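Annex B. Sample input.
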Amino acid sequence: MKLDIAVREKDNLRAAVRLLKFFIIVIGFAVVYQSYKVGKAIEYQKTILVPFGLDTQLEVSGDDLTEESADYYARRVTSLRATYSPGTTRKNFILLLRLYAPEAYPDAWKVYYDFADRIETTNVSSVFYQDKIEVDKKNQRIVAEGFSRKYKDNTPLGESGVRFIISYKIDRGMFQLLKIEEKEKK
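Annex B, continued. Sample output.
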């Protein structure tokens, strides 16, 4: 009789081991499936930013941004780049440099610090009035047009039409500048 009990216990142990192996395999498949689904969910994740004082949402998804976001960034960039005075130029350019991509930062830093030196030595001020924005999402460019008024010691120097071509990229949900070109509007 003891042999019968031993055989039954051994069979029960084998069945228990098979059942445990089955559950380990099921749990393994569940973990792999869940990992796949989490990866897919991250691809479709959207980052919605609402900075203080903004009355609309800025939405950046993957490498795309909405029209409202492009408008906001264009206004911010052109305001920091084209509206300056000898007292505010360095602060504006520091804020503008924070928006640059790491690979474009060294060249932009040199350009803006040289520009700030010229502004401070010549005592020139500028005000930019933006009136038109065009967004080219395919080439990741924003074209902002408007008028710039320049002053020297509170004396008007003139007004001219200006077009800014802003090249950007979206990296991990962050808007980053690559280059800003300024051209006179005809």
